[in-house]
Amino acid sequence: MDHKINDRIVCAYLYAISKYGYPPNAADTIAHINEMRMLGFSSIELEGIREKHLLEVYGLKNQIAQKLSDEGLHVPYFCAVLPALSAMDEQVTQQQLSLFEKACEVAHSMGSLGILDNAPLPPFQFPQDIPVVRHYDEEVLNAAYLPKDISWEKYWDKIVDTYRTACEIAKKYGLNYVMHPAVGVLSSSTDGFLYFFDAVKMDNLKFNLDTANQFVMKENLSLSLRRLKGHVDYIHISDNGGSKVEHLPIGEGNIRWDVFFETLDIIDFQGHIGIDIGGSESGVNQLDEAYVHAADFISQHWKR
After folding, report:
1. Which of 30, 43, 152, 248 could make an SS bond with 239 (beta carbons 3.0 to 4.6 A apart)?
2. Are 39 and 11 in contact (CB under 8 A)?
3. Beta carbons of 106 and 167 less than 8 angstroms apart
């Protein structure tokens, strides 16, 4: 299929996750690329999820880059999921930064503009290891607790330093470091990100506005876009009802899309929009149709 969809509209990796679980088999990445291409996308998102999956993708990076080149595809943003990057243990931090640099190598090999990761996970202790989940729901968060001996001031200084280092690593590869908001993480709101940005003091630290996640956290999307002008170059788009974490097809939730796209025009947004529909929490039965419809909807309403 010829690429019918504008290259600033991205098929997010949630498409593959929704079909094949979390994480999908890294060895099947080429097949996942083909499926997204067949929908008509020329821009897609890929991920490296935690150490094992990320290292498998790293081992395939040259093969993936060649496939992208052969098909005329782009990966504007590569997502690395490294929740332990914000750990208190310095040895863990250094190991995670090493993985982060490998993720930057993958992103660079694909010609990406940025590397995406969830905003910092607080120093929670879980009954076992950090759960391998996309979102930390109420049940997961209720099982977590903070160490009794934590000094918030020392921890804050540590993660600011860690994420400044991560930004420096990303900059070495010509990448922005884009923070994805989610329930339960630090810097997931407009205020939270701007506060963190002021502390880290790196101009390549950006925010990935996620319409569904921001909406369920009761943020006014139009106000957020205005306040975050210059800080957002990538948006994840899906609908949401406002009562729970879900990533619904456009039009099946309560987001005012007329106001949203009007605001994109007002702030002269020049970045990419990733269609981020699905996940086990959303119950999307016609996934392909939802992605194609969303791409058509965005094309009609986004004045680029």
Report:
1. 248
2. yes
3. no
Single out the residue of 122, 103, 128 nearest to residue 114, CA to CA: 103
The residue type of 144 is A
What would the two tokens of residue 303 be? 């004045």
**What is the dihedral angle through the alpha carbons of 297, 113, 278, 19, rounded to the nearest 10 degrees?**
120
Strand ordering across the sheet containing 272-275: 43-44, 9-11, 272-275, 234-237, 205-210, 176-180, 114-118, 77-81, 46-49
CA triple 108-112-115, angle to 5 deg: 85
Which domains are seen in the chain, by residue range? Answer: 9-301 (3.20.20.150)
Residue pLDDT, tens place only, 252-281:
999 999 999 999 999 999 999 999 999 988
Judge contact between 187 and 119, C-beta under 8 A.
yes
Whole-angstrom distance, CA of residue 254 vs CA of residue 251 = 7
Largest CA distance in the chain: 58
